[in-house]
Amino acid sequence: MLATALLTSYAEEIAARLPGGFDPQSVAATADELAPPSGAFLVVFDANGDGVGCGGLKDLGSGAVEVKRMWIAPSCRGRGYARALLAALEERARELGAAEIRLDTSAVLEEAIALYRASGYREIGRYNDNPFASLWFAKRLREAS
Question: Could you report the per-residue pLDDT of 76-117, keeping only the tens digit for each?
Fold first, then answer.
């Protein structure tokens, strides 16, 4: 399955880049949590129809969702796929009724941090217990109703 292959590639890259490795089970987002009606999972396709990236949304409750497993294949970076994926995740979060979108990341992932900041995310305090994260971000999508 394409989603499984993309998630495997994501986990392999993160494990190689983080100094202490990475255990994807320790920061679980189950398939059910990333599925409608409260979640989402998007796949990015290139012009040839090949899957080159992915990202999910997990409902955190209280009008917030979290970006999970956002990844673009290294060979496809620098082409705008990550920016387009993040925008699509934000739009889907709005469709799900979220007022805020959050995410966590490692300080090692400098290109991801630059993308989030350029996309209007602000650094916030720790909101989860992800042992691999060192930075937490949020962005308001709409005013709470």
Answer: 999 999 999 999 999 999 999 999 999 999 999 999 999 999
How many helices, marked H, and strands, marked E, lie in the chain? 3, 6
Domain locations in the chain? 2-100
pLDDT value of position 1: 84
- CATH fold, domain 2-100, is Aminopeptidase (3.40.630)
- Identity (one letter) of the amino acid at 21? G
The torsion defined by the Cα of 35, 61, 88 and 105, in degrees rounded to 10, comes to -100
15 burial via Cβ count (<10 Å: 0-12, 13-18, 19+): middle
- Quickly list H helices, 1-145: 2-17, 81-95, 110-118
pTM above 0.90, yes or no: yes
Amino acid present at 50: D
